[in-house]
Fold this sequence. Notes:
By secondary structure, the protein is α+β, with helices and mostly antiparallel strands. It has helices at 13-22, 26-29, 49-93, 98-112, 157-163, 206-223; strands spanning 38-40, 46-48, 117-123, 132-135, 151-155, 173-179, 187-193.
Amino acid sequence: MNTTSEDKIPATEEQVIIFLRNHPGFFQEHPHLLSELNLPHESGSAISLVERQVAILRERNMTMRRRMNELMQTAKDNDVLFQKTRALTLELLHVNGWHELNEVLATFVLTDFHADFVCCHLENVNVSLDHLTGGARPLPSEQHLHGNYPICTALRTEELSALFPGERPEGAGSAVLAPLDLENQAGCLAIGSRDPKMFTPDMDSLFVTYIAEVLSRVVQRLGSL
């Protein structure tokens, strides 16, 4: 029994999709079919497949432009942050005493990095200044740190008060805590904000890691004087 065209089983949507994907030039070889294809607008009017493709490409182009602008803004922000980190590093290299270190932390971290609080905690160092304090272990940062890497975290009022003893936080906030790499003692740089969302766990800690490394060398040098 012969099978006529009417008896053939029509292709499924999936088969059509697979065929078109495997033959991207199909409509170039059969351009007359484009005039027979129409896609409805949400409003009910119809547009050709070519018009729909143009609209999709235009939307993708806008998305790419938006992403490019975001990348450019991130690059600009990182450049500004790098310049501030460079200035802080140069000042740290010229520090010759604990009081000078205290002033550098206050001037550059609080002002240039728009922080509300800053304090460097050092183990077994006889110093008690506004932004630099020494004492016995455990340091107030140890309950938050797990390892040798900086963390960004939200903090309760009492936790902020412990990390920044010279301040009087009126509510919850956030901070970035960077452990110092010191010989035979513990240390930590704490930079805080009254805004609980200022320092979040998804933030990049590259710059603060670098600052902590430089600060560690300065503390080590001052401790040997």
